[in-house]
Amino acid sequence: MLARLSHVHSGTFYFMAKEKAKPTAQDEEIKAVKKKAVDSKIEIDEDDPMKEVKALEKEEIVSEAIPATELRKAVKAMAVPGEFDWDAFETKGFGEGYSTSDREKMEQLYAGTVTTVDSGEVVDGVVVGINDRDVILNIGFKSDGLVPLAEFKDMTDLKIGDKVEIFIEEREDKMGQLVLSRRKAKLVKGWERIQKALDEDLVIEGFVKRRTKGGLIVDVYGIEAFLPGSQIDVKPIRDFDIYVNKSMEVKVVKINYTNDNVVVSHKVLIEKDLEEQKVAILSNLEKGQVLEGTIKNMTNFGVFIDLGGVDGLLHITDISWGRINHPEEVLKLDQVVKVVVLEFDEDKKRISLGMKQLTPHPWDSLPADINVGSKVKGKIVNVADYGAFLELQPGVEGLIHVSEMSWSQHLRNPQDFMKVGDEIEAVVLTIDREERKMSLGIKQLTEDPWTRQDVMTKYAIGTKHEGIVRNLTNFGLFIELEEGIDGLVHVSDLSWTKKIKHPSEFVKVGDKMQVVVLELDAANRRLALSHKHLEENPWDTFETVFTEGSVHKCTVISKNDKGAVLELPYGIEGFCANKNLVKEDGGKIEVGESLDFKVLEFSKDDRRISLSHKAMFSAEEDKPAAAKKKTPAAGKGKTIDKINQEVEKSTLGDLEALSALKDKMNAPKADDSKE
User: At 220, is the secondary structure helix, strand, or coil?
Assistant: First the structure.
């Protein structure tokens, strides 16, 4: 019955509102009905919106229609005195029976029961309910909000009545529900606390979640912050994994809101503690002071040692008296060592340390019987361009210059003789115990080839040898006949017939060459050699072929300001002056033309042939000016000075062609003898 009366009451209320309310109130009621119809998925007839109202009334009211007077009586009979004045409602309308003071009291009461909240705020919420999926929270708003239980994993003892910080995502979603988030609240509050920690230089606690490239990821107030490896400790950290899943005190050093990046440091906390200790150490530091420290870092040039808040450099040359390539050969990280202060720069706060200075110098223990001429043994520890260093004992080295490695006069790369690690024997050449310097030699272990008794007979003048071309110069080439025995072949002694301007036209370094000895000077270690003297002088034969007045077919090879170079038979060359280089008709002879030329002059000593084409048709012969005759040198080719002063005037030719010519010339003589 009560249910029916409530339906009746609703119908009556609507009927009375329809009857008594103003047009504006009716419009609002129609809008409310439309909304209800939309929520109930009822189609609205725009021409008659009340049609749907009637339909809703028909669904709720099952009984027959009751007169309005009876409905009013029934409602009045059920009404509780003081709750609602129906008579005032019928005469004044809904909400019109309040005075101004009453309205203010009602508004205050409403404001006290419902809190005004905005989206994006972080507020305190009270847990009013917990189920398997959600936590129900009351924030003082008109409705409660639900937060997934998964967001409270860190609160294992969560119970009804607990206060938690909640982020308001939406005051009302599509379903009219208040949307809350604890995760976002933690993020917002976390960023606020991080900013506060940076502004106020606070020490905060973080939890190391994992390692990453170059450092660690630390959870600070629910925000992932980056802790660089260089900011973990004052000394380099080689194993980051030892800090994972552990708490650590840090300071915020940088915030980048654009990338949501936070950088923290643990090192600054340690540095602050060490600063006082550092000041105390530096104030008492003196040159020559022996300290104890821990190796914190290694480089190619040395190691850095922690002296207790201040670092010092131990250079690689001050680690050991012996030569080492890298500090790790004798030291290791985190090793505690004793060092001595060598230098201290107060302005730059730089400390130079030494470790070998704590032990006696090896030169002080060098045996006294080691003198010049003594044979010593050692190991090659370094090879340079100029020589090699032989270590007799750790800290005692001697230099073997490249010139003392071989009797050969040609300087070569020391690596051709030895390499690092070789154990060899050497002879002491010089020694200075005060300066701690020593020079050594290894060629002295063998006899000097120039002082051997057989050198005068082995390399006597006229003897033939084979050697290797070691060096080329503008004036000739050097041939090594054996180690320590070199000889010079002058450029003029390379060929009888070819005019060679540079030895590279004839031979190259490394080639083997046959030579004959022209001169030997053992005292000055000089040997003059020749290659052309292996063959007979062909100019003796040319003298009988190219006689003065003889005519030969020649080809112009080239021309210059003075005349033209001609190619004669058998591959040799001659020269024709410009005044004799004219044709019978007065025309010029060009390069490549082949004409008859007459020999004007033949000089065997100068190896020169002068020719003329003009003499073929003119009786006037323009002979070249007579050259000064050279005084014949006694014993040609017997002095090196004579070889160097010899004029390089020769004509080109072909020895094979010359040999054929000689055989041809000798053939008639043989026939004559038969006759």
Answer: strand
Say if pTM beats, i.e. exceeds, 0.70: no
3-state secondary structure of 78: helix
Contact 414, 387 (CB under 8 A): yes
CA separation for the pair 656, 663 (Å, rounded)? 11
Assigned CATH for 201-270? 2.40.50.140
Higher pLDDT, 247 or 124: 247
Phi then psi for 210, rounded to 5 degrees?
-165, 165
Q: How far is CA 450 from the centre of its chain?
A: 54
pLDDT digits (tens, 9 = 90+) for 21-53: 445 555 565 555 455 445 544 454 555 555 554
Degrees (nearest 5) of the Cα angle 505, 508, 511? 130
Asked if residues 354 and 314 have their Cβ atoms less than 8 Å apart, the reply is yes
The answer to whether the CB of 359 falls within 8 A of the CB of 321 is yes
The 3-state DSSP composition of the chain as helix, strand, coil percent (nearest 5) reads 30, 30, 40
Cβ neighbourhood burial of 462 (10 Å; 0-12, 13-18, 19+): exposed
- Across the strands, what pairs with 400? 388, 440
Classify 359 in phi/psi space as left (phi over 0), alpha (psi -120 to 50) or beta: beta
573: nearest Cα among 592, 558, 562, 583: 558
Locate 547 and state its tokens.
Answer: 């006689």
Topology of domain 539-625+632-662 in CATH is OB fold (Dihydrolipoamide Acetyltransferase, E2P) (2.40.50)
